[in-house]
Amino acid sequence: MELYSIVSPTEYQLRRKANAQRIPLGGNLELTPVCNMDCKMCYVRKSPEDVAKGGGLVPWQKWLSVVEEAVEEGLLFLLLTGGEPLLYPGFRELYHALSRLGIFLSVNTNGTLLDEEWADFFAEHGCRRFSITLYGKDNATYDELCRNPKGFDQVKRGVRLLVERNIPVRLTYSATPHNIDQMQELFEIAKEWGTTLSPTLYMFPGVRRGIYGEEQVRMDAHRAGKEVVRSYRLANPETDFSLACEQTLDGLFLPPKLARTDGLRCQAGRSGFWMNWKGEMTPCGMMEGPAISLKEHGFGECWRWIVEQTKQIPVCTECRECSMQNLCQTCPAACIGENRDANVKPEYICTMTKEMVREMVEELPEEKRGKYLEALKNEKDLF
To answer: What's this model's pTM, rounded to 2 decimal places?
Structure first.
C-alpha cells in the first residue's frame, strides 16, 4: 500500500531520492482503531474496551514529540488515519501543533463526522488533502456494508463542506460484493461532488483482525480482475481508455520490480513507515511485524531498526520469476496476508492479475496486441 501519496513530479523525485538514501520522507500515524462505523471488510476496527485492554491510546503530546523527532530525520508528508481519526481525543490539539511544523498533513476519514465546525477547523489550519472512502451510492448500502443507515447523507454533507472551503478531497472506493455493481454511479457521484474517485479492487486480508486469505469479504478473483479494467474505462474518456491499458501493459517491458531477493519494493522501510495506535512502528499498516515500540525508543532508532528489518523480508521466488510482476500488486505483505508466508505465491492476486491482463489485451485494437502477446508467450494459461 502507498504510505504517502505523490501528486507531482517534484514529489516523485523526492521519493526516489529518499528511497535510495533511506530517509523517512513520509508515513502514516494511526491515531485510533475506534470507529463510528463497523464495515464488514475492515482490518483495523476495535472497540473502546479492546483499546483499554491493549493499553489505551498514545497521548497526543507523545505523538507530537515523536513527529518532531521524525521531522529532524527528514519527515515531510504525514497522513493521519484510524479507525476514524476524528474520534481521537486531543485530535484538534495535535493537529494544530503539527500544522506548525512545516510538514504536509493529510487525513483519511470515513467522512461521516465532518460538520461545519470540523470544516472550519481544517480551513483555518490547512490540509494537503482529505481521503474519504465512499462505500456506496445511498444510505441502504451504508446500512448493509457499514452498519450506518445515515452514512451516505453524512458523507455527502462532509464532502460539500470541505469543497466549499477549497480543501482538496479525493474519494476512494473499496469494492466488495456488496457495492461493486455501483461503481459507475460512484464515479458519477464523485464528478457531481466536484472531486475524483480512486477504486480499490484488491481487498487486502485483515491480518490484524485474524482474517486471512479467503476469509476476507471480497469478490471472486476473476471478477476482481475484470472490474479493474472496467474501472479504467470509467476513469478515462473512451478515447483514452486504450491508451491507459497500453500504459499499464507497457510494464511488461520495464526492469523487474522484484529483481532482488529481499526487502520490500514499495516505500515501506525505505522512505515510509507506519505508526500504529499502540505506539509501535512497522514498515506497513498491512503487516503486524516487524514492530518496535516508539514508547521505549526514539524515532531515529526505530526508523533505522525498521530499515534493517525490512531488508531481511524475503521475496517470493515464484513471483520474482513471473513476467507479469510489474503489473501485479504482489508484495511480501500480500503474500503474508494471503498465505501467512512471504515466500508463497498469493494465488488470489495472481488470478486477479491474469484476468486483468487478459481483458486489457483483448480490449486493444488487433494491430496493437502483438508485442504484448509476444511478451506473454510463456504464460500458457493466459489466452
So the answer is: 0.92
